[in-house]
Amino acid sequence: MVDVEVIGISVCPPYQGYVVILKERDGERWLPIFIGAAEAQSISFLLQGLEYARPMTYDLFAAILVEGSLDILSTTICDLKDNTFFAEVEVKIASGEMRRIDARPSDAIALALKSKAPIRVAHKVMDGAAVSNEPVNRSIVEQIAYLHQKLKECVEVEAYEEAAKIRDHIRSLETRLSDTDPTDPGNEPL
Asked: Would you give per-residue pLDDT tens digits along the chain (190 residues)?
């Protein structure tokens, strides 16, 4: 398994969707996974350390697992079939037995972030679907990840004007990223 971290959510306007970006911890590959708008918002809130006023589905599920004496050990993006990613959540039940629960990647990632569990990707998935570091896109993605952290810090200290500026800058970078196709050899650096 390849250990990864969630470095951010990016919008992809041409596809009217969102991408969660996983980066291998000890390497230079990135795994983009398309997710829905609601899931993107949930993961973004978790990345920023924010909470909704009422529990979200991942909050409910995490609470049920804790109340049932189940520990979330990890989540794994375990397969890719017909352009669809598959995930599993590994839990340890009260008897000590390990179980794997089938999940959508976005739900598994949200649950891992909520419970601070490791996120992993199967080698075959990473080898087949990861993107090698394309210098321009890597730089933009790193900037977006950094700005998400700064946005979180601004919200925590209630610096809302600065947070709005950072949010707008993130949107600008996400637009630039979506306008660049890393698989196009004719792409010029931004």
From this structure: 999 999 888 776 555 578 898 999 988 888 888 888 888 888 888 888 887 788 888 888 888 888 888 899 999 999 998 888 999 999 999 889 999 999 999 999 999 999 999 999 999 999 888 876 554 454 566 667 667 777 777 788 888 887 787 787 777 777 766 655 444 333 333 2
Mark whether 161 and 115 lie in a shared domain. Answer: no
Q: Domain span at residue 19?
A: 2-132
Same domain, yes or no: 142 and 119 = no
Q: Which residues contact 30 (CB under 8 A, 6 or more apart)?
A: 7, 21, 22, 23, 24, 130, 131, 133, 138, 141
The three-state secondary structure class of 70 is coil
Per DSSP, what are the bridge partners of residue 88?
A: 76, 102
Strand blocks (E) in the chain: 2-12, 17-24, 30-35, 71-81, 84-92, 98-103, 119-121
CA-CA distance, 68 to 174, in Å (whole number)?
A: 40
Cα–Cα nearest to 181, from 128, 136, 125, 129: 136
Q: Which two tokens stand for residue 15?
A: 């596809």
